[in-house]
Amino acid sequence: MRLARNYEQDLKDFGKVGFEIRASSSGQHEKNYRLNEAQASFLITLLKNTRPVVIFKKELVRQFFTMRQELQKRQLLRMELKPIRREMTDVIKEVDESKWAYKKYTDLAYKMALGRNAAQIRKERNAPPKAIAVDFLNAEEIAAVSKLESQIAVLLELGMSYEQVKAIVASRRGLEQKAS
């Protein structure tokens, strides 16, 4: 914390320095810094290499690379999801003219894949109410939603109603859960 305060101007060279004020266990308020990868990397170079600092540095590096891999997977899956999503919305446009058709099928995909609809996911993850829920999913969740949206599109193309699609998707989900 002392180093972050002392070098705050230097940290700003790597982006905006975020922080939050929290009450500590002693009842005092403390400033917790939110640093990006470059800021954290710079700050750890300033620490002395005592054993706890070395352990901290190793874990920080491990976490940054784990997060980078996760973000890359998410980005790739989002690109793969776009044509699947487009296919589903195109089919919905052809078969269901109701006002809430897109929401209905999107929520079905989310609910069956993740157990929660898009609004619940946004709320749970502190996303703005109008945000795109998929932007707040991890790679595994995006893959699950993508799979369901693809299945829904195929079932709609076969001329099935919402109730039929829901029943089939729910029964397939039940079978998959029993298998795992």
Report on this model:
The protein is mainly alpha-helical and 180 residues long. The protein has helices at residues 2-6, 8-12, 37-46, 51-95, 101-114, 118-124, 139-157, 162-179, and strands at residues 18-23, 29-34. It has 2 domains: 2-46, no CATH class; 75-179, no CATH class. The chain has 8 helices and 2 strands; from the N terminus they run ααββαααααα. The N and C termini lie far apart (46 Å).
Task: Draw up the topology in text.
Blueprint: H1 2-6, H2 8-12, E1 18-23, E2 29-34, H3 37-46, H4 51-95, H5 101-114, H6 118-124, H7 139-157, H8 162-179
Antiparallel strand pairs: 1-2
Helix pairs in contact: 3-4, 4-7, 5-7, 5-8, 7-8
Number of strands: 2
Q: Please indicate the count of domains.
A: 2
Strand content: 5-15%
Distance between the termini: 46 Å
Number of alpha- plus pi-helical segments: 8
Question: Which residue ranges are poorly predicted, with pLDDT under 50 across at least 5 consecutive positions?
Answer: none
Key phrases:
single chain; 180 residues; mainly alpha; two-stranded antiparallel ribbon; 2 strands; 68% helix; elongated
Brief account:
The protein has 180 residues and is mostly helical. It has eight helices and two strands; from the N terminus they run ααββαααααα.
